[in-house]
Automatic annotation (TrEMBL):
<dbReference type="InterPro" id="IPR036388">
    <property type="entry name" value="WH-like_DNA-bd_sf"/>
</dbReference>
<dbReference type="InterPro" id="IPR011006">
    <property type="entry name" value="CheY-like_superfamily"/>
</dbReference>
<dbReference type="Pfam" id="PF00486">
    <property type="entry name" value="Trans_reg_C"/>
</dbReference>
<dbReference type="InterPro" id="IPR039420">
    <property type="entry name" value="WalR-like"/>
</dbReference>
<feature type="domain" description="OmpR/PhoB-type">
    <location>
        <begin position="124"/>
        <end position="219"/>
    </location>
</feature>
<keyword id="KW-0238">DNA-binding</keyword>
<dbReference type="InterPro" id="IPR001867">
    <property type="entry name" value="OmpR/PhoB-type_DNA-bd"/>
</dbReference>
<dbReference type="InterPro" id="IPR016032">
    <property type="entry name" value="Sig_transdc_resp-reg_C-effctor"/>
</dbReference>
<protein>
    <submittedName>
        <fullName>Response regulator transcription factor</fullName>
    </submittedName>
</protein>
<feature type="modified residue" description="4-aspartylphosphate">
    <location>
        <position position="51"/>
    </location>
</feature>
<dbReference type="InterPro" id="IPR001789">
    <property type="entry name" value="Sig_transdc_resp-reg_receiver"/>
</dbReference>
<keyword id="KW-0597">Phosphoprotein</keyword>
<feature type="domain" description="Response regulatory">
    <location>
        <begin position="2"/>
        <end position="116"/>
    </location>
</feature>
<feature type="DNA-binding region" description="OmpR/PhoB-type">
    <location>
        <begin position="124"/>
        <end position="219"/>
    </location>
</feature>
<dbReference type="Pfam" id="PF00072">
    <property type="entry name" value="Response_reg"/>
</dbReference>
Length: 221
């Protein structure tokens, strides 16, 4: 899941980013509305965690522009005001959810995960192919009943391929969905991670390379 955090309180923003990354999400951050607006409009994010009162472009304007663009991105709006009128106004602008500061981090994670499921075509919580089982909610994967010791990026790659249900997913798409903006698009990051993932999955192979196009899952014959 790709998430953008737009929050001008740097300590809070950095804490949110660290916490979401620990949950296996690819997270970018902006500390002002101007940059946050540009990032939100250029990159396809599943969820934007958006502070309402931002310097530069106001959070309301970022939210409204996202809605007007027709993007599937879901918006979780943060605000220091807990009044009913303020929450109603934020939802009327187009926010999908609303969270008042201060908040419990576990609740933030749960809300982001719920919004992420709404941002993409529905996929079952448990993904399977042959004897491989991946539980998206519990963040665990097994093959033949044996747990797989996967890194966050390996798990993310496998999750994206299984969600594609046999369709080809390009390296560029995987880089965008699993890594954040700090990833160098000209590196061999995806290929190297894919190699280690395949080794951990073992035989028979479940991931096929489509030359010049990308990767896809394929049940063993």
């Amino acid at each position: 899941m790709r998430v953008l955090v737009v929050e001008d309180e740097r300590h809070l923003a950095d804490a949110i980013v660290r916490g979401l990354r620990r949950q296996g999400m690819a997270v970018d951050v902006s500390y002002d509305g101007t940059q946050g607006h540009e990032m939100a409009m250029v990159t396809r994010y599943d969820v934007v965690v958006l502070d309402r009162d931002l310097p530069g472009v106001h959070g309301d304007d970022i939210c409204a522009d996202l809605v007007a663009s027709g993007a599937l991105t879901r918006v979780l709006m943060l605000t220091a005001s807990g009044s009913v009128a303020d929450r109603v106004e934020g939802l009327q602008i187009g926010a999908d959810d609303y969270l008042t500061k201060p908040f419990a981090f576990d609740e933030l994670v749960a809300r982001v995960q719920a919004l992420g499921r709404r941002a993409t075509p529905a996929a079952p919580p448990v993904l399977t192919i042959a004897d491989l089982v991946l539980d998206q909610a519990k963040r665990v994967a097994t093959r033949g009943g044996q747990p797989l010791d996967l890194t966050r990026k390996e798990f993310g790659l496998l999750e994206e391929l299984l969600k594609a249900r046999g369709a080809v997913v390009s390296s560029e798409e995987l880089l965008e969905r699993v890594w954040d903006a700090n990833a160098d698009p000209f590196t061999t990051t995806v290929r190297v991670t894919m190699m280690t993932l395949r080794k951990k999955l073992g035989d028979p192979a479940l991931i096929e390379t489509v030359v010049g196009a990308g990767y896809r899952t394929r049940p063993p014959e």
